[in-house]
Amino acid sequence: MSIVTELTNKWRDIDRPFLIHPNGNLSFNDVLGNLNKQILQIPSGSVVAVIGDFDAETISVLLTLIDLNTIIVPLTKDTKEQHEYFFEAAHVDFIIENGVLSERSHDSSNKLLQKIREINHPGLVLFTTGTTGDPKAILHDFSSFLVRYRTPRVKLKTISFLLFDHIGGINTLFHNLFNCGEIISPKDRSLEQILDSCEKYNVEVLPTTPTFLRLLLLSGFIPRKIPKALKIITYGTERMEAQTLKSLCELLPNIDFRQTYGMSELGILRVKSKKRDSLFMKIGGEGIKIRVKKNVLEIFSKNRMLGYLNSKDPFYDNGWYNTGDVVESEGEYIKIVGRTNEIINVGGLKFMSSKIEHTALDYDNIKFVKVMPKSNPISGQHVELIIQPNDLSAFDMKDFKSFLSKKLQPHMFPKRILIDDVKIMHRFKKR
């Protein structure tokens, strides 16, 4: 059965919107009515880049391309400057933007793409964020990817915070499609617009990032602008700072904060927080196994990616994946404390960059922090720090250094502290 037919059967007797969008409310039938007929002529197995967002036209194109057994590369306008790289890395044959179909010629081939063509399955290509090195092109079998959504889940009204090119955004879309839920698409993803949309449409679930939540905490909008209908705030995609979570939980006692964890390489994982104010979590789900080796988390996922299109296979030992996340354990629960590439070695003394980051964020008037390990001919490495004060005019560097000297061991103290903006990506993560 095609995915369009399957979802049409689910939505047949439901007379309410599926998607609430700035351009108007849309039923599932409205979504299906927004299709450029040219798209039906795209050959099976073609790699198609779809540049869009959560709107009727983009969703209609996505579902149709799945049924055509094409290999889909979801992109957004926010990454326009990287599109040529993405097209090349994914071996894109066609591009769809604003309903217009264009063809792209290339003479490259790829064994993984050929493999998915041979079994006549649709594919999904997602890109890593590329904060270190060039983004990797991740290929999933879209048929396998969709299997989990056929198990009925609780439906809650959700805002589409995570974008169309992110595995979390794709997860939000298909969870609500298969469970006949409602998605709210905000006009933009500014703090005020997100909160206004939550208030206007009685949103129950707000998926976010720690960076977004820290901005929200510093904005003064909490608790006065937090809608009463909001039940759950989830956070993931980067490490949460403990003090930020503690403050949020104290200010919003009626909201359940839930940590998420996942990597595009591994598919969607099920996560359970130990407590709403705890960073310890349990990772599981169908076909998921975890283990910790030398304090580093490794995961086996039955529904993992087929591989990278532009890099070597990262799996070993019959399918295990080294996440690079350094963890602490409490029984079956784990807490992410940093990444292996964030371990700093000063004169043989090793520590996590997160220790310095968390300490600096405990100082009043600090908005964001970025820790940078630098090579040092004498000690091997030393620490440099970029800080972004919330109010620059009120920031006292001498007092800040005094604060750090009381909290950090001498080898952890930054050799250089710069005041500058810490860059935020389009996905609300720090660069």
Question: What features would you describe in this structure?
Answer:
The protein has helices at residues 3-11, 28-32, 56-67, 83-90, 111-118, 142-146, 167-178, 191-200, 210-219, 242-251, 353-361, 397-407; strands at residues 19-21, 24-26, 47-51, 71-75, 94-97, 100-103, 123-127, 137-141, 158-159, 183-184, 205-208, 232-235, 256-259, 270-273, 281-284, 288-293, 296-301, 307-308, 320-330, 333-339, 343-346, 349-352, 366-376, 380-389, 416-419. The protein has 431 residues and is of the alpha/beta class. Among the domains are: 3-146, Rossmann fold; 347-419, ANL, C-terminal domain (GMP Synthetase, Chain A, domain 3), CATH 3.30.300. Helix content is 25%, strand content 29%. A seven-stranded mixed β-sheet has the order 6-5-3-4-7-8-18, sandwiched between helices. The protein has a four-stranded mixed β-sheet with strand order 2-1-10-9. Strands 16-17-19-20 form a four-stranded antiparallel β-sheet, with no helix packed on it. The protein is globular, with a radius of gyration of 23 Å. Strand 16 and strand 17 (296-301) form a beta hairpin. The mean pLDDT is 91. It contains twelve helices and 25 strands.
